[in-house]
Amino acid sequence: MDVTITPRTLAGSVASVASKSVAHRLILLAALTEGTTEIDCVATSADIAATISCVQNLGATVARTPLGCEITGIPRVEQSGLPPVVLDCGESGSTLRFLLPIVCALGRPCQLLGRGRLAKRPLSPLYEQLVAHGAELSPQGTMPLDVSGTICGGTFLLPGNVSSQYVSGLLMAAPLVDGPVRVLVKEPMESAPYVTLTIRALASFGVSVEQSRISIDGNSHLCYDVARSPLVSPGAIPVEGDWSNAAFWLAAGALSATGVEVTGLDSNSAQGDRAVLAALALFGARVSRTRGTAAAIRDSLHGIRLNVADIPDLVPPLAAVAATASGTTRLTNAGRLRLKESDRLQTVSAAITALGGTAHLEGDDLVIVGAELSGGTIDAANDHRIAMMGAIMACSADGPVTILGADCVAKSYPTFWDDYVKLGGSYAVCG
Length: 431
Known about the structure:
- By secondary structure, the protein is an alpha/beta fold.
- Helices cover about 30% and strands about 25% of the residues.
- The chain is built from twelve helices and 24 strands.
- Helix 1 packs parallel to helix 3.
- The chain is globular, with a radius of gyration of 21 Å.
């Protein structure tokens, strides 16, 4: 679906959608737990649907409820003797990277499938660590990925400059492994808040993770020791609001003289992307936060310098603000964006340029010089966050903005365009 947006300033209030990051973790842990867990998560997305489909294929029972879903865990039977099961991860990197160590811990033979760029997104060094601990995996870089064997306990060693999803997947698999599990991550570690999110999810299911710091050969490592205790259902558990998607509306508020507020957000969340308010304040926007609500409103916006290593998903909404803020913005240490649904460093830069703005790359830094946006056509490149970024930039453009492939927002936020209209936006489907 292609859409053409008539530029209008967004304003008002919108409810946050359920956090995709939290939902993945709670769904998987519920599926690994004896008994039944009720998950309060009314909203869904293509990525969440992929995780639900995979746990169902592994034997979990998932029933829709008025508040979300009820999950009865995978039956406690010998998994290694069962026939291979196909697990279609869609385009969800979280689903693939979380499930891979989990099925290796279960010992369930399977074929993991992926679509789009997912097959090309790296699995090293998680891949090598699983093999070293007893898994049998087909060669990397092709789909399907055939998985068999059962991993044993021990120490899993990972560098900190790769996906934190590898760490989270190992931590969630640890309660299933025969023997103690320690995960060592060489510092500095990127996207650390997402590991905290996993540790909190595990705690909700009765499993604690002891965190410490040790030195190996003179190098500092974060150490995660998972307690030897079974997963226990909390009975019912809610999925908190999503700061990553809320960031787009807050960015729109920073471009609006009347502002935008987002409700249903936890100000004490472990989600790293709640840093969006601090980032928008650095730009000069006026931000506020009350119990469950965050808001932003335009003031005198200026360029900033910001290290985004821990908050890579905030780059598209922050770039939408930087595109018209006075002066130069430099978003540093953004190299991992090259491995998202698109090469997001390239596609963010291209989107700004397509609307008449000024942006370029310097190594792993994104440099944006604020300018008046004239309008134009953006190729979303099948990347949900590029489509949403384009919609927010359109609010500041002098002419219409067309977004090619705008329906890719369904990956994380199927109702994005409905909420866009609720806040005063205007678009028409092309053709």
